[in-house]
Structure formats: structure tokens, C-alpha cells
Amino acid sequence: MTPPKVFVSHASEDKERFVLGFAERLRQGGVDAWLDLWEMGPGDSLIDKIFDEGIKESDAFIIVLSAHSIEKPWVKQELDVACVNRINKGSKLIPVVLDNCEVPQVLTSTIWEAIKNTDSYDAEFGRILDSIFGTVRKPPLGKPSAAYAGFHSVSSVKGVDAFVYKEVCAEALRNESYRVSLKKIFLEEGNPQISSEELYESVEYLTGYGLFEPHKELSTKPDKVVITGSGFELFARENVPDLKDAYNTIGLAVLNGSVSNLFEAKKSCGFGELLTEHVFRSLATGGHIKTAELINGDISVLSIFPTLRRTLVEEN
Description:
By secondary structure, the protein is an alpha/beta fold. It has helices spanning 15-28, 36-39, 46-55, 73-89, 122-133, 146-149, 159-175, 182-187, 196-208, 229-239, 243-256, 262-268, 273-285, 306-315; strands at 5-9, 32-34, 60-65, 92-97, 113-114, 179-181, 212-215, 224-227, 289-293, 299-304.
């Protein structure tokens, strides 16, 4: 990997007290720091060296702002060129502020790094290196608790809610549809397993966690529910033995081009219509494929992302 090249703009008054040691640390950290002291010798063209070799070829431009530099016409000229270079070539402008000096107006919309102690600035230097290399220190995303983001397993659903949830998902599999009639399962005569009050309260509770979407028609109470994709996924993980095979088979068929839409997957992959549609939609929402839904209910694959291949390799 070619080390990033960084031009360091500064006032000569800051060279000994900060810039020289700072540039040396950059080079020790794997950054090809361009400093006039190292790059220019007697007889060199000032314009050619600074503008053609220094600024023009840099991946990033560090301007050291201090009580000395902010008054320098030369530094202001370099700053103007750096802004143009950043726009035209995508180089990164990183202001490093010393002396608690006033930041020029042209940089007020750019995040800068303030160094209050030039003898001790490890944390600040680390952030500058991260910016140069494009390193992100954002912590990994953890799993939210069920109280905030829904259930993460069927076992998280208890009592009456678990009964309603599993019965609705099982009925969806039998009828090959996310949409399920509550009346058919729970409220028909001879089926006194749960009262209507308990049913509607449970549906409201499960809906609040994103497992169901209520489907209301004429009545004020939902007589049907639609299972969400995440709601069905949680159920399928613990109750559908073919789920992993379905993901692998359908994912591979999409990857090798033998399946280009949902209708083809339903015909050729050998799984139920609901399970096939669920996997197809999950591949899209998971960022593995890009799809478009057609008027006739079909879902067409528009593009395939590298994550699909990598996921299939990891699974196998």
C-alpha cells in the first residue's frame, strides 16, 4: 500500500517548537509528510516544489494555525490553493490549531484539531492519523434489549403473547401468506382458548415490538394481522428446519444467475411460497441484493452485492 502523502503548511516561527517534531511523528506513523526543510534545496524552484510536488500530489493538506501563521500572506495563499485542490481532487484539509488562535473564516465549517500542549499531544495526534488514513473508531453496534428494539428470539415472548405469536406464524406457513385471519384461529365458535380481550391486547403488544402489523377493515378491532419480515424471521429461526437451506439454495441461485426474480425462485428452489418470498425479501433488506417490486407481485433482482457471496461462503 502506498503511504498517504501529506503536505504540512506552517509558519517558519513554528518549525522548531512544533512542526519539525510533528512531521517526524507523521513519518514514523506511516505518513509521507512533505516538509519544505526536507524537500527543497538550493537552486530549487519555489513554485514548482511547493505547488507541483507538495500540494498537487498530496492526499491530505495539514495547515498549522498559530498566532504566527494566521498573519502570514504565504500561508493564506497555500490555504486557498489547498481548498481548490480539496474540491477538485478530493484531498483532505486538516487544520491543526495552536496557541488558541482565531481560526480563519474559510475554515469555520471544517473540523480542526486543537493542540493545547505542544509537548504532549498523543490523543490529538492519534485523531489526526485516523483522519489521514480514514480510520473510524466508532464502537461496534451492540444488540438492543427487547424492551427497546423488539424480541431477538421466540423465547423472549411469554405466556399469552407467545401463544398468539406462534399460532399466527404457523397459520401463515399453512396458508402461504403473511396476512392471517385472527377470527379463523382464535374467535370461531368452539375455540375458547383465549378471550377476545386477551387476543386484542396481545396483538397490540406484539405490534408495538414490530412483530405484527394490524390490518383493520370495517371493525375497530383488527380482524387480521400482517406478520412483519423480522417477526417471521424470529419465528422461522426456531420453528422452520429448512430456513438455513432456503437461504443457501435461493442465495446461490440468485448469485449464479439461475434465478432473477421471485416467481422463478418459487418455481425452481423447492421451498414453500411464503418461505421463498421471506428469504427473497430478507436478502434485499439485508443489503445482499437490490430488488424492484412489480405490479404483478413479482420481485425482480436488479443487482447483486459482494456481501451475498461472502455470506454464502461464511455459512458453508
